[in-house]
Design a protein that fits this description.
The complex is a heterodimer. Chain A is an alpha+beta fold. Chain A has ten helices and 24 strands. A five-stranded antiparallel β-sheet of chain A has the order 15-22-17-18-19, with no helix packed on it. In chain A, strands 5-6-7-8 form a four-stranded antiparallel β-sheet, with helices on one face. In chain A, a hairpin with a 5-residue loop joins strand 13 and strand 14. Chain A is elongated, with a radius of gyration of 37 Å. Helices cover 69% and strands 7% of the residues of chain B. Chain B has seven helices and six strands. In chain B, the strands form three sheets. Chain B has a two-stranded antiparallel sheet with strand order 1-2. Chain B has a two-stranded antiparallel ribbon with strand order 3-4. In chain B, helix 2 packs antiparallel against helix 3, helix 2 runs parallel beside helix 5 and helix 3 packs antiparallel against helix 5. The chains are: A alpha+beta, B mainly alpha.
Chain lengths: 559, 304
């Protein structure tokens, strides 16, 4: 009889002790990231069958488990990947937005200053000081182009650096998840069906961290291991094995750091930007593709558009020495070097998949008024050449012979080339870097019409008039319009990303609240549990004291 | 619903951060006086600001150009005024040369005076403007008129010096000398040269050749009159142009005012509204801080 009470009170004290430990564990981990609160699962012991019926045998702790829902955690991860994507995109595009923030610091004021200089020469064509002032305002305009383009280049460098470090993080997480897979599978096997709660928390935390960097899909295996996939189904973790990504210059565009997937054998496969969604990495790549490239191209379009249309008019006039005007601005030449060229050239980067590149086409901006802000890819096919306009994916010509004229560009014929070769054509990407003032002698400004005298301002008037003419983008936009469009596009996109980001942050916060309502630690609740288990322990102790008294009564009977 | 303790912290802090960010933004707007801190605040407005700023700057440029045109036309007007005075004087001399009883020595001294007037006219026709340009040389940077009475040569050309004074209007800021002084049928140099020649030719025979001189002089006066007519015509044209640019200038000033109003509406911070926002945001932030501290103070552990 006494043995039974002793035994039962011991089970109660033991269960209360485990309860206290678990509560303590929860309290101490209240701020541990990724911690899921744990609880003990207890049930009655198998009762003792006697002649008077089943006599209860106290309590048993079945297991300690964490409050976890793969669905709710998955929701948080998904929302987090999108939120990180938007946050990173916003952080990057804000840099452009801020760069364009001050109307005085952008291109507009320099453009205006330049045309004031031209107007001054139009009023005083004979005056060397007026001409000198026009040259100075031209230098100021050119250096503003450089400064803005330089800022774009810095932002691009920043993206490249961040892509590299993000890829490093992804690889580290992949290795850590693979290692934890190993431990968890072992723990599961030796744990008699008890879950290895804290190891599971650690692995889920890594999955959550990984989702901040890139959107991943997790598939749980029967043995408890996680398989992790990215992009278009590329495996990043398979059981105990981690694969890796590599950040390296994009062979088709070495200016940009891209992502290569290193598969089992160690062979690298280049992943297209668009395949990598979500997370910081997705945000960086999308920003570069959707905002940075078009913005820099747009600035370049203003530069090369101004330079070329101004040069054409300038060449029609006579300078102060009665000599026909030359080029006023320098533009990119066929060899990629900026200089006094009659027609600007596009930047062309060749890429041969298997062989050495045999040649590259010369691409000139023969009609700058038709040039767009898009980049293009030219592919050598068995049937000839195919051109893709990258901004909208359209194909201006396919399997055709060169030369071709598309969007104001002339793609010259060249030889030799091999099937599989491809070329990235960037008509305006570096234009804001390549522009320069071609003349240094103020007398060389061609203010006069052909054959006119020193007081002849006819060509200067025409040059000044270019400011208000819709010359670019198919005759729809002035220089200022083209720049304003850049400001507008960046402003709209920044606002869009901001607003979407705010909404996503709210969604993330809501999913986190739901997940936390199941899995989070509430200190008041734990304090109550502390009291509950303390009382249970004390009651079981009291019971043991009672058992001792009962036993003593028996002993005293004999004395 | 269960609430986790870290959630209470995280959400409390997140709200305070949001309140602080809003408050800081209003503060920055107030400090800079700008409603649009960067294009994302109002992409359409930011673009409009750039476009209108260009229009405003262009408008200012036209105003500067108007100033230049006004200066040179004003100078031309003064010069033409002196020229017409001079021709009137010469005309008076021509008539007095035809007076009965004029002597040879009188004619000789008249001719000498007229040669002086000729040089004076030459000086006026070769005037320079405020920036040192010959006013009547067209596009050529050369002395417009050279020569002696009876043989004056125009070295300039017929080039117009147009100045852009509005988006759609170019004004001729000068007149080429040939059209002013040596217009076919209205040649002041020719008239004066002829007059001098006639008087000098008549002087030795005086008073004998009176009738011939009278006929010549009346032809010379007719020539002078048509020359003067041309000068007055050009001067009237200068006046019309000055009137036109005065009207354009007024119009430009009105437009500038409109641009300023639009720019102010687009980009200026509304202080009345902004300062009330600021006070509200500050109150919100303070409330968030107070409630955060209060909620953090609530814990069952306080009673254990």
């Amino acid at each position: 009889m006494g043995d039974g009470i002793f035994g039962i009170s011991i089970t109660g004290m033991r269960a209360a002790q485990i309860g206290l430990s678990t509560t303590g564990h929860n309290i101490t981990n209240v701020s541990t990231p990724g911690f899921h609160r744990q609880e003990i699962i207890q049930s009655t012991n198998t009762p003792l069958r006697t002649g008077v019926g089943f006599i209860g045998q106290g309590v048993n702790v079945d297991t300690v488990r964490r409050a976890y829902s793969s669905y709710l955690d998955g929701q948080v991860n998904f929302a987090q990947a999108r939120s990180s994507y938007l946050d990173t995109y916003y952080a990057e595009i804000s840099q452009i937005d801020n760069m364009l923030a001050d109307p005085q610091a952008g291109l507009s004021s320099a453009l205006q200053g330049f045309f004031s200089g031209v107007n001054e020469v139009a009023v005083h064509p004979e005056s060397i000081p007026s001409r000198q002032s026009m040259l100075s305002s031209s230098e100021a305009l050119v250096s503003r182009f450089y400064a803005l383009n330089q800022r774009f280049a810095e932002i691009r460098d920043g993206v490249n650096t961040q892509v590299t470090s993000t890829v490093g993080l992804i690889n580290t997480y992949a290795r850590d998840i693979a290692a934890l897979n190993d431990q968890i599978v072992l723990a599961d096997a030796g744990g008699n069906g008890h879950p290895a709660n804290d190891l599971l928390d650690q692995r889920d935390t890594l999955i959550a961290e990984l989702n901040k960097e890139i959107n991943v899909t997790v598939v749980k295996q029967d043995d408890g291991g996680y398989n992790v996939f990215i992009g278009q189904g590329q495996a990043l973790v398979v059981g105990q094995q981690a694969l890796s990504l590599d950040a390296r210059p994009d062979p088709a565009n070495p200016e940009d750091i891209g992502i290569a997937y290193i598969s089992y054998g160690g062979s690298a496969q280049f992943l297209p930007d668009t395949a990598l969604n979500g997370g910081n990495l997705g945000g960086l790549l999308a920003f570069r593709r959707e905002s940075l490239d078009p913005s820099q191209n747009q600035l370049g379009l203003v530069a090369v558009g101004l330079a070329q249309t101004f040069n054409v008019q300038h060449r029609l006039g006579d300078d102060l020495n009665g000599v026909a005007g030359g080029n006023y601005f320098n533009v990119r030449g066929p060899t990629g070097i900026s200089g006094s060229n009659a027609v600007p050239s596009a930047k062309v980067v060749g890429y041969a998949l298997n062989n050495a590149l045999s040649g590259s086409p010369g691409v000139t901006l023969t009609d700058v008024t038709q040039v767009t802000t898009s980049d293009y890819r030219l592919d050598r096919t068995a049937g000839g050449f195919t051109l893709t306009r990258l901004s909208d994916g359209s194909i201006p010509f396919a399997n055709a012979a060169l030369p071709q004229v598309v969007d104001g560009l002339t793609i010259a014929a060249f030889a030799p080339s091999s099937v599989g070769d491809s070329w990235l054509i960037q008509p305006t990407r570096d234009a804001a870097k390549d522009i320069g003032v071609a003349i240094t002698d103020p007398a060389r400004i061609a203010a006069a019409a052909t054959g006119g005298g020193d007081y002849d301002n006819r060509n200067a008037l025409l040059l000044a008039g270019l400011q208000t003419q819709s010359l670019l983008q198919g005759g729809t936009a002035t220089y200022q319009n083209t720049y304003s469009q850049l400001v507008s596009d960046v402003g709209v996109k920044t606002r869009d990303i901001y607003v979407t980001g705010q909404a996503q942050a709210t969604l993330l916060s809501q999913t986190q609240a739901t997940q936390q309502s199941l899995s989070g630690v509430n200190l008041d609740e734990e304090a109550a549990n502390l009291l509950r288990y303390q009382m249970a322990y004390q009651a079981s102790g009291k019971m043991m004291q009672t058992a001792t008294v009962v036993f003593n009564t028996l002993l005293e009977l004999g004395s | 619903m269960r609430i986790s303790t870290s959630m209470i912290y995280d959400q409390g802090v997140a709200r305070m951060q949001q309140q602080t960010a809003d408050w800081l933004k209003t503060q920055q707007q107030a400090a800079s006086g700008r409603r649009i801190l960067s294009p994302q605040d109002d992409p359409v407005g930011a673009t409009r600001v750039l476009e209108i700023s260009q229009f405003k700057a262009l408008n200012q440029q036209y105003d500067v150009n108007i100033g230049s045109a006004n200066d040179t036309l004003g100078l031309e007007d003064t010069v033409l005024d002196s020229v017409s005075e001079l021709i009137r004087d010469v005309r008076t001399t021509a008539i007095s040369a035809g007076a009965p009883g004029v002597t040879g020595s009188q004619l000789t001294s008249m001719a000498t005076a007229l040669r002086g007037r000729f040089n004076e006219l030459m000086g006026l026709a070769n005037s320079r403007d405020g920036s040192g340009r010959y006013m009547f040389s067209g596009h050529q940077a050369v002395v417009p008129f050279t020569g002696v009475p009876g043989a004056v040569v125009y070295g300039g050309d017929a080039g117009q010096r147009l100045i852009q004074v509005s988006p759609t209007r170019q004004i001729d800021s000068s007149d080429a000398g040939a059209g002013v002084f040596q217009n076919p049928g209205a040649d002041v140099f020719g008239a004066l040269g002829q007059l001098i020649a006639d008087i000098e030719a008549a002087a030795p025979g005086m008073p004998g050749s009176q009738p011939a001189l009278a006929a010549n002089l009346s032809a010379d006066v007719a020539l002078l009159d048509s020359g003067l007519g041309r000068i007055l015509q050009v001067r009237a044209s200068v006046g019309t142009r000055m009137q036109e640019i005065a009207a354009i200038k007024l119009n430009g000033e009105d437009t500038a005012l409109q641009y300023d109003t639009t720019l102010s509406r687009l980009q200026d911070f509304d202080y009345a509204k902004g300062l009330s926002d600021l006070a509200r945001q500050q109150a919100g932030l303070e409330a968030a801080q107070k409630t955060f501290v209060k909620i953090q103070g609530l814990s069952l552990f306080n009673y254990l």
